[in-house]
Amino acid sequence: QVQLVESGGGLVEAGGTLRLSCAASGLPFSRYSMAWFRQAPGKEREFVAGVRSSGVSRYYADSVKGRFTISRDNAKNTIYLQMNNLKPEDTALYYCALDQYVSSWSLDGMDYWGKGTLVTVSS
Q1: Can you give the pLDDT at residue 103?
Q2: Angle at the Cα of 28 (from 22 to 31), degrees rounded to 5?
Q3: Which residues have CB under 8 Å from 115's CB, separation 6+?
Q4: Cα(32)–Cα(25) distance, rounded to whole angstroms?
Q5: For the chain: N or C, fewer Cβ within 10 A?
Q6: SS in 3 state form for 57-78?
């Protein structure tokens, strides 16, 4: 069974840092693109960052460019999201997602989802 398990969320002050992790199992992880999405209260789920199978090609939403970094460790079947200079508007439930077919970074393009980890940024 395919499973994605996020960890690392918590409460931080504005300007602080946090590192999220997502451990994958049940699939040959190194073949697939991975992504982070987030959903704030009252808003739709949105793309945050994505990484292709090699780890070389990385993509970011405009709102997090220069602050967040996505990376992957294929030997550990894990992706990470390093979040620096956090802002209150970053508060959301962050989801890990796996894309088997190299689709666009859209909700419908993701094939498997984790249950999410909560990030809360205070002002």
Answers
A1: 83
A2: 90
A3: 5, 6, 95
A4: 12
A5: N
A6: CEEECCCCCCCEEEEEECCCCE
